[in-house]
UniProtKB/TrEMBL annotation:
Keywords: DNA-binding, Transcription, Transcription regulation. This is Regulatory protein PocR. GO terms for molecular function: DNA-binding transcription factor activity; sequence-specific DNA binding. Residues 1-94 form the HTH araC/xylS-type domain. The lineage of its organism: Bacteria, Pseudomonadati, Pseudomonadota, Gammaproteobacteria, Enterobacterales. The keyword Transcription applies. SMART domains: HTH_ARAC (SM00342). It holds the Pfam family HTH_18.
Length: 104
């Protein structure tokens, strides 16, 4: 469900309701089994998708951000940089220069 809705405004409360759990209990179970909190996991999944789109599409950074559920491109860029220590623009440039994705 989460992967299929990465472009949506995913809220823990909505996902918990979808699986008929209280938000508190869902949050505890999620962290127990995934090892990280719900929001961090969603952002991680979005960043994996972002890398794929940067490698295999010609979409603008803003389009990628919107497609992955970020309302602001600047926040998308901030999360990407925190995750991979490089901006989305620099990542794409490295891909174009090397013709294969850099190892992160």
């Amino acid at each position: 469900y989460i992967d299929a809705h990465l472009s949506d405004d995913l809220r823990l409360e909505d996902v918990a309701s979808h699986v008929y759990l209280s938000p508190y209990y869902f949050s505890k179970l999620f962290k127990k089994y995934q090892g990280i909190g719900f929001n961090a996991w969603v952002n991680r999944q979005r960043m994996v998708s972002a890398r794929e789109l940067l490698c295999h599409s010609d979409w603008s950074i803003a389009s990628i951000a919107r497609n992955l559920g970020f309302s602001q491109t600047s926040y998308f860029c901030k999360v990407f940089r925190q995750t991979y220590q490089v901006t989305p623009q620099a990542y794409r440039q490295q891909i174009n220069e090397n013709s294969h994705p850099p190892s992160l």
